[in-house]
Amino acid sequence: MPLPKSQEFPWGHKRRFNAYSEYLRLLFGGRIQKLSVDAGFSCPNRDGTIAYGGCTFCNNEAFNPSYCSPDKSITQQLYEGIEFHKTRYRRSSKYLAYFQAYTNTHAELQRLIMLYDEALSVPDVIGLVIGTRPDCVDCEQLDYFENLSKNYYIVIEYGIESCNDHTLNLINRGHTFKQSVWALEESRRRGIKNGAHFIIGLPGESRKEILNQAKIISKLPIDNIKFHQLQILRNTEMEKQYSQNPDLFELFELDEYIDFIIEYIELLSHNMIIERFTAETPPRYRIAPDWGNLRTDQILQMIENKLAEKDSWQGKRYNQ
Ligand code: SF4
User: Fold this and answer.
1) What is the domain extent for residue 257?
2) 22 half-sphere exposure, CB direction, 13 A CA radius
């Protein structure tokens, strides 16, 4: 790909990657804020539907904002979320209800419809982002989402984590990469927007192998993509594995991660909208790596500075 002038990036703005925040701004003409809700779902990888114990890295509590609790109604959580964000970002005007905790399609369709309808009836909520597993959506649900997508902004966000079945097995995901491809393709075929979540640095994956995954991912029908660095969190199976055998893990130091993620997105298709490069968890949950107490937005700024310094951008080496 020839060197573009900054204003000529194919995604229509000057940032060096296809940024989700800019995409939403261009689509809706203003700032859009996601509000997390915890609808009290379980997870099939914990309740025995697929397995017990869950994914080895998972501590869902570490990602749940304080205003989210299944003891409160969806409506109450959303109103509290709106208040919380109004004080932080005065300009937020429209919202997406983010069904984030656990597996948000793991129930009968009638119950799902009731919960999603409740969220969509809150003023200024213009759509839903639904976090789930690729093996936990069926055709009936997808038909329903297809219809809902005609009137609302709907994204189904799949935890894919890796393209490698050996890794998926090692982290006890309980699904295969083929199932992820099925879910993405079925969503795209129905015109439902999708998101895909990947963890960078899972045990057993070399740096070269992870970079190769960027090429594999680029061929998939993904709309939005989220990355985060592998973190060892408290009260997880991975914490035990890490304490017993730290050599199994090749965790990224911050500087290395910044260079690596730039190399990674150079190989990634420019069509994919990137929502996140890193995860931020409260220090009380974190075992390793130690990146200090930098916030996600501070690390994002470091990545953008490095992209400019290297004169690099998403897709620079795509298809090479
Ligand atoms: S990451 Fe998702 S699928 Fe895995 S145990 Fe946690 S909630 Fe369940």
Assistant:
1) 6-309
2) 14
Ligand 1 atom closest to 103 (CA): 7
Is residue 159 lining ligand 1, measured as CB closer than 6 Å?
Answer: yes
Residues near 222 by beta carbon (within 8 Å), at least 6 away in sequence:
184, 194, 195, 196, 272
**Does 133 contact ligand 1 (Cβ within 6 A)?**
yes
52 secondary structure, DSSP code: B
Taken as a whole, the chain contains a residue count of 320
Q: How far apart are CA 285 and CA 238, in angstroms?
A: 13
45-103 per-position pLDDT tens digit: 999 999 999 999 999 777 666 667 888 999 999 999 999 888 777 666 799 999 999 99
Q: In angstroms, what is the span from residue 280 Cα to ligand 1's centroid?
A: 17
Amino acid at 275: E
Q: Is the CB of 45 under 6 A from ligand 1?
A: yes
Residue 102 is assigned to a structural domain of this protein: yes
Residue 236 lies in a domain: yes
Kindly report the CATH number assigned to the domain that includes residue 180. Answer: 3.20.20.70
Contacts of 226 (CB under 8 A, 6+ apart): 157, 195, 196, 197, 198, 274, 275, 276
Report in angstroms the alpha-carbon separations of 6 from 14, 136, 312: 5, 41, 11
How many angstroms does the Cα of residue 46 sit away from the middle of ligand 1? 7
